[in-house]
Amino acid sequence: MSLTRRILLPILILAALVMSGMVAIVVWDTEQRAVQDETRELSLIGQAFNTELLTLNSFALGLATEVAHNGQVQFAMATQNRALLQKTVMPGYKALKVRLEIPQYQFHLPPAISFLRVHKPDQFGDDLSSFRQMVVKANQQHISLNGLEVGRAGVGARGIAPIAFQGAHVGTVEFGFDLGPAFLHALKQRYQVDWQVVLAKRAAEVATFNQKTLRVGNVVLQSTTLAQPLITQQSDFKMRDQGYYSLVSQSGRDYRVLTLPLRSYSGEVIGWVEIFKDRSAVVAARNMRLFEAVGLIVVVLTLTALMVSYLVMSALRPLRPLTDAAKEIARGEFGRDLSVYTQHHDEIGALAQAMQSMARQLSQLIHNLEGLVSTRTQELQAANNKITELNAVLTEDNQRMQAEIAITHKIQKMILPSVSECNAVAPLDIAGFMEPADEVGGDYYDVLQHGEQIYLAIGDVTGHGLGSSLVMLMTQSAVRTLVALDETDPNRVMNTLNRALYDNIKRIRCEKNLTLVFLHYCANATGGGGQLHITGQHESILIVRRNGELEEIDTWELGFPLGLVEDISEYISAMSLPLAVGDTVLLYTDGITEAANEVQMLYGIQRLKTVLIAHHKESADAIVQAIVADVKQHIATQEVYDDLTLVVFKQR
Amino acid sequence: MNQIEGEGYKASIDEAQQILRIEGTLRLNGLGEYVPISAMLSRLLLLGATPVLDLTSLGFLNSSGIAVLSKFVIEARTLNLQTLRILGAESVPWQGKSLRNLQRLMPALTLELI
What we know:
The complex is a heterodimer of chains A (652) and B (114).
Chain A: H1 2-68, H2 71-79, H3 82-99, E1 104-109, E2 113-117, H4 133-141, E3 145-151, E4 154-165, E5 168-178, H5 181-191, E6 194-200, H6 201-205, E7 215-216, E8 219-224, E9 244-250, E10 253-263, E11 269-278, H7 280-316, H8 319-331, H9 339-342, H10 347-415, H11 419-423, E12 428-435, E13 442-450, E14 453-461, H12 465-484, H13 490-508, E15 514-523, E16 530-535, E17 541-544, E18 550-553, E19 574-579, E20 584-588, H14 590-593, H15 605-615, H16 620-635, E21 644-651
Antiparallel strand pairs in A: 1-2, 1-5, 3-4, 4-5, 6-8, 6-11, 7-8, 9-10, 10-11, 12-21, 13-14, 14-15, 15-16, 16-19, 17-18, 17-20, 20-21
Helix pairs in contact in A: 1-7, 2-3, 8-10, 10-12, 12-13, 15-16
Chain B: E1 3-6, E2 9-14, E3 19-26, H1 30-33, H2 35-47, E4 52-54, E5 58-61, H3 63-78, E6 84-88, H4 93-105, E7 109-113
Parallel strand pairs in B: 3-4, 3-5, 4-6, 6-7
Antiparallel strand pairs in B: 1-2, 2-3
């Protein structure tokens, strides 16, 4: 519905605008023509009126001139014999009156004394000079005059002729026709328009006629053919001595009015004649046409609306099933048959085809998707099962590793020489310390006594874990075996160890190797001190002599990593140095010197030396405790990455 | 294959310059996993008379890796190479001692610690 309205509304608005515009133009044009016609007609009537007025004036003068040349009239006037005059003119007057209304027929004596009013014989002898300028002037100058002048009965068209007797001026005779109701009604009959004569108040006041007449403002109504007088202007139009048109209305009637000035015989504007053209018929006709036009517009618009609605509805009708089908597709129903519409060879057909194809594809897609989801769900289930299995394995592995770590910790601790073993070594004061890292490294130290011979060893297997621990165990066994055989030759000791470890490491495929220093102590036969024979590559050996002097023994050239290459015999050598009473020897692994603090700063050999020197006079155990305390202080909260191993021995 | 890349490491060989460059950290498990690296090291020895092993950007090498390097040096020694240059970095902790031991395995080896 909204689509229909959207199409319909602009069309209707456009049609209404176009039609209204056309009607407005036609009405305006008709009105202009009517105005032209009206003004032309009024203009012609106005000209006719002026002609009538001229004719009337001439006629009045003609009559006066005729009478003035009658000898009996001249005689009667000269003798001022009113009875004779009346007797002379009355038969003619009566004859004229049959055919013609003569409102005024009067004789005057100079200067302007009414001598006989033929139309009113009983009234005479009054002086007219105060307001009848034409009469005064004709008597003064003995001339004929005609034109308009206001008299006792109002404005009239007048003709005055002088009367002479034997060459002497004896008076004047005047004929006058009122511009009164009779005159105007006659005009109305001839021209089919209404007439009205109004006088300027100043002109009317010079006369003495006292008719009960309408006075409004500066205007006095003379006469009118209108049922009700219509005063269009209340001023005296001093400035308006030209004719003009105007529109007025009264009692539901519209008039176009031509106002023409009335000029006296001397040319002065004394009033106006107004010609009223009733245009009610024109207005009614115009209104009728407007009404018809509006009616036509309404009819056309209604028809247009119906037609457009019908067209839109019929165009949209096939869309309804398509819309329903689209809604069904949105709900996931793809079954609707649109084949009736796909045969249309228009946009609807194209739409129906597109929709059918879309529904088919969607249906397939959803079908495929369901299959896919099902497959994926199965795959995911399988994966989940696998993960669960793996998790179980991992848990198991983790438990095993925990057990492994626990075992290796135990092995490492178990294999170390006990305090009593160390104390049993009479010539030396020996103390050892080992703290395995969380992951267990492969540090090793040993103190062995066979007969009078005393052996010490310290080593570090690379890496962590059970493999490192195993290599450490093997090393310990091999060293003990060599000691048991009283093997003291450095070359044989190291070569045998290397060979045994190399082969075993190869067998267990753990690629470990180790650094190991092997010390053989022989007490001096004379007592007090002894000799220390050193072989094998490891960290430096620190010796603090009784006097506090520190010696650092670099063991680099004394050996080679064990288990790394098959034959190391060419890299092995040995050295010997004496130990005096009070001398202290420190063995350590890189777990000590490379212990890191929070900012990854290493403990370092320098600090180790400092602590050793500071405590060298104390017992071996006290020195170990001091170093361990200092290292731990350095490490603080940092995790321990490598085993910490220390051995200190002092010559007693 | 002039380049291999693994988790955390990269090894690339420049045949013209006879340089094998190993970078990153090597924590491979056992000699088995080191086979591709070993193969590359062996290839380096066959490229010419002046092979160079650049380890300046190798931050870590586990014990298996040290074993591989040792075998490589012994192989070089048995080939009677007149020279083998190994470039290392003084700032990398593992290199000092281990590389010096390699030099002991083959005196003709020049070790340049930068």
